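TA notes, week 10

Several of you asked for a full example with nothing omitted. So below is the full record: structure tokens for the whole chain, then the designed sequence directly under it. When grading your own attempts, check the secondary structure regions first.
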């Protein structure tokens, strides 16, 4: 029996368990209405698939930060983070949890933008809650008026295991930016 493969199997199984727990969020919050600029946190229901994915609809809390305004044809730089009340089943070194998500662009502008770079920027001890921060995206906004940003699908990765989560039901607007006419 080749024992050199055992740690990888344990790590993969632990990763699947960690992804499953991280893909589900703790408490659900009522979705507040989005304000132009600033930071807003919303709770979105997700259905997840992949190794160790939780069953049913799971609420995930997301914080989206958008500029209050940008000039027409300017870019809105967005940041996104997610915090869970679920606990890590194992010790997770810094930057071992990563996530990407899509934001739907609505209102005066339309389309979608992918947020990348979200990670756990510090180590997480087994039994502690996990946050992923630092997700960023930039989108050019061509039409004047209020543009909204609504959370979409998420992919969470831990130790090479990926769980994909799709919005279940309606996703609330998480932030908005006023695009001023040139």
């Amino acid at each position: 029996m080749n024992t050199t493969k055992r740690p990888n199997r344990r790590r993969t199984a632990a990763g699947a368990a960690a992804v499953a727990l991280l893909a589900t969020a703790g408490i659900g919050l009522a979705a507040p209405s989005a304000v132009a600029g600033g930071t807003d946190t919303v709770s979105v229901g997700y259905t997840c698939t992949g190794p160790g994915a939780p069953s049913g609809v799971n609420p995930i809390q997301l914080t989206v930060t958008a500029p209050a305004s940008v000039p027409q044809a300017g870019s809105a730089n967005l940041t996104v983070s997610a915090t869970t009340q679920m606990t890590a089943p194992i010790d997770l070194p810094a930057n071992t949890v990563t996530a990407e998500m899509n934001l739907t662009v609505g209102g005066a502008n339309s389309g979608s933008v992918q947020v990348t770079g979200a990670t756990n920027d510090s180590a997480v001890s087994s039994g502690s809650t996990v946050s992923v921060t630092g997700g960023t995206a930039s989108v050019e906004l061509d039409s004047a008026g209020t543009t909204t940003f609504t959370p979409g699908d998420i992919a969470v990765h831990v130790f090479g295991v990926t769980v994909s989560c799709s919005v279940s039901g309606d996703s609330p607007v998480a932030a908005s930016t006023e695009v001023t006419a040139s």
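Residues 1-18, 23-35 have pLDDT under 50 and may be disordered. Use that as a sanity check on your answer.
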